[in-house]
Amino acid sequence: MCRLMAYLGSPIIIDKLLYQPKNSLVNQSINAKELEEPLNGDGFGLGWYAREVNFEPVTFVSVHPAWSNRNLRNLAPKIRTDCLIAHVRAASVGEVSESNCHPFQYKNMLMMHNGGVENFSNIKRKIREPLTDELYNWIKGQTDSEHIFAYLLNDLFRNHKTLSPEAVVDAFENTFKALKKMMAENNIHEAAYLNMVVTNGLFIVGTRYVTDPKEEPLTLYHSEGSRYVVEDGVTQMMAPEDDDQAVLVVSEKLSDDKDWTLIPPNHFVIVDNTLNVRIRAIKA
Amino acid sequence: MCRLMAYLGSPIIIDKLLYQPKNSLVNQSINAKELEEPLNGDGFGLGWYAREVNFEPVTFVSVHPAWSNRNLRNLAPKIRTDCLIAHVRAASVGEVSESNCHPFQYKNMLMMHNGGVENFSNIKRKIREPLTDELYNWIKGQTDSEHIFAYLLNDLFRNHKTLSPEAVVDAFENTFKALKKMMAENNIHEAAYLNMVVTNGLFIVGTRYVTDPKEEPLTLYHSEGSRYVVEDGVTQMMAPEDDDQAVLVVSEKLSDDKDWTLIPPNHFVIVDNTLNVRIRAIKA
Amino acid sequence: MCRLMAYLGSPIIIDKLLYQPKNSLVNQSINAKELEEPLNGDGFGLGWYAREVNFEPVTFVSVHPAWSNRNLRNLAPKIRTDCLIAHVRAASVGEVSESNCHPFQYKNMLMMHNGGVENFSNIKRKIREPLTDELYNWIKGQTDSEHIFAYLLNDLFRNHKTLSPEAVVDAFENTFKALKKMMAENNIHEAAYLNMVVTNGLFIVGTRYVTDPKEEPLTLYHSEGSRYVVEDGVTQMMAPEDDDQAVLVVSEKLSDDKDWTLIPPNHFVIVDNTLNVRIRAIKA
Amino acid sequence: MCRLMAYLGSPIIIDKLLYQPKNSLVNQSINAKELEEPLNGDGFGLGWYAREVNFEPVTFVSVHPAWSNRNLRNLAPKIRTDCLIAHVRAASVGEVSESNCHPFQYKNMLMMHNGGVENFSNIKRKIREPLTDELYNWIKGQTDSEHIFAYLLNDLFRNHKTLSPEAVVDAFENTFKALKKMMAENNIHEAAYLNMVVTNGLFIVGTRYVTDPKEEPLTLYHSEGSRYVVEDGVTQMMAPEDDDQAVLVVSEKLSDDKDWTLIPPNHFVIVDNTLNVRIRAIKA
User: Fold this and answer.
1) Domain boundaries along the sequence of chain A
2) pLDDT tens for residues C81-101?
3) Which of C74, C80, C99, C104 is best to mutate for the B interface (most B CBs within 10 A)?
């Protein structure tokens, strides 16, 4: 079912996010705590921004499990960024291939998904139909995730001239509504789980969503504070006392402490470019 | 631009086809002789039939270059088959991924392609439109090749109830005609190179084709005889003298001898299940 | 800690061993039942004999997890053999690389190991010292396993002119004695777990061994009967009633039935070329 | 035979070194200009220093060819460093595995090699004998290169308390002398080609060396100037006019211009931490 994390805040060495916490994302690749099937060994990916160079993010993906990846292990202590997106995959729709690894990149945006749409092939061609040629051809892999993001981008660019958290929120609501309609029309009765994160390096919009309101969506937490600290595997968000600021959005808590807030079911978590966090219901 | 080979005949250890000839397919992965760009290092694939088990073929593909693949090296001297298809890739359209490796399999059929369609993305969605849902979802990768085969299969099953060399020939002609039309309507003026091979383990249909008759298609040879022999790197087709029989269809000669016949431009090579070989013009 | 299996008997399609049982080796790669750490996702390997071709085995290994390996999935239903060795790895000593994948091959012999020697680097150079140049250079990887097998082969060829189960048993005893001595002299106080399997395609010798008699060795079972059958995931050894015969040696039971016998601690399981099974104490 | 490059100077985006020059190292992976066998497709590796974090370098290696590596392509435009080491491999001794990829790292040092020792297995155990246990166990792969570097490090730390270009020069001369002796005593009569580069991120020592003075060593060039510029594939070393400084040491010229100086046969190129370059005969 995958696990994901997103960080926005003061520049940080990514080792502190990916390896050092007791329940770090790399540990979740072996043994996630809040999943029935604890294994997320079907590849991984990260994306980050090197703003001192330009606004386009870097992605680094692999079909190998995160836990044994030598390059990830070596890069993590040397990369410093103010915005990191990371994902470990448990393949449902789509083979284990680089094209199916999250995050997906479109220009300066990064996207990732935790969840899935059962019998996705029932609606695959429907979801592609309205896409512009450019977005149609942007799709490289087989995942439900990438197709849904293409739909989201298509809606976003049709309805909005500038990229903002509000525009992304709007596009998510349109996408989820459309998806529910397509599912109903194409014989998909199982709930679709749609915890999704979009960032441009300046803001983050995340969803904790399930199409069937009787079901519980997958877990999604956030944490905010003046500064993110990890010591002996225990993470801590320091209370605001200076200019440092940091927000984390994660599938599961990185350590057993009380700094984590569960996003309510079918709500957005919106982190703007001043690091203010808003929680808002998803109207879809 | 890729290189390919197909064998149909008396059971043979595949090492004799893949490694032993001087200009074997594995050697062509490093240094093809009849290509401007001699390198075919973007993965490889083979498919063969184990008729003692059942009629579905086995495929074995890798994103690693053929020349250094330990598993290929180890399997080759131990696999015996009467029908082998093999391909080394030089990526044009589509990333280096297992999904983009040839041969492509549909049930008991195997398909592979040497060539390409420039600006393929111009017609990608057109080519998918007429596909049945099943064939639409059968496509796993990004290549022009796989999309063209989906179109071919779609035409084949719509117009024919049983699989035969004639049915495949017919479907190829329809596909090439349709492709030329789509290209013309979507602003693709470059010639498309379409050396393609389809087999079901019992017969082979190959094409040596280019959409623009003023251009020379890529090379495609065949060789036939009573038995295929390779000694010190030199291949030989023994003259018919007993019941053994063998036919090879290859992108380039496996050794410098006179057993190879160049297929004429825009012609089919058709090997039926009695190993008779016919050469026929492609009407498209 | 790895999981392994070995089959000797009537020719069998290897899918029945690797995939079909409820607790098949491929399932053990995700979730082994009799290990504290259930994951064996650091590559896999198999070796089998194609006696219709020659006496040298084929090995097929990968650094990818077994559960998602497309080539393994495709090959398994088409390979038929009377002797299969297979291993899924949880890396302890040595990186995830093809050179560290079991089984190891020396001429017509295959070897694999489940267990480990703590602080192996303390004795690595000691264990290499007595080796002939040929065996010294035969070692390709970093594992304790491969080094111990090199020592075993060295002892075997020094003391025996022909290969037989008795010769292998003798070499194992010498090797385990020597290893205990080296460990004692080089400050290794932890018990070493040494469940090891050697075959030449005609006989199998397996050990269930731990250097410290106060410790329990890792599990190792065997099963024997007239024929191995798997239906709906449940394996069964048919009672001897005809000429068919089959023996399995496995780290853990392939399904919950009573056909499995736990080898006693520090005992050999010896399957000879008539498929007779003997259990004998290891004198070391 | 491999190709290599080393850069020391003003911080630079590594894309300018790896991709932009006409004859960039990535292009050399497909088609090196100054090698009989132009292909270097058996993996690649780079190492660089992120001094703003600490003194240990990062290494990034892959068994895939450099030309199609998505992660390398993505990382290159975002990594800025003042010391980069990079290598594309054509495997001679040792399989295609991450352990055999250059550069090799020991603490804050990086090492790489272009060349080879024929029949290296003749002297493999000799070269390991004098090593400290730590360096004995530091060796992870099978290459002649890594073994020679272990010998070099062993000599270096035995005879020198601090790391300096002079110390490395001294250790190289001892290593080459010892190697020639071992070769002579163990029946290796072919010339060994030893273009080797060692750096600690502050200085570089490179060798252009062949053990047989009658042979021509492999090419090795250097280039120095105030600033390294690449425009439309053409590299240029600007004449010293300001504080910017840069030195390149490369197997072959990155573009056809006159900024490149061939190191004389059997000479060192020594770049110290003020970017002064000295060329000095190798006494061995």
Assistant:
1) 3-281
2) 999 999 999 988 888 999 999
3) C74
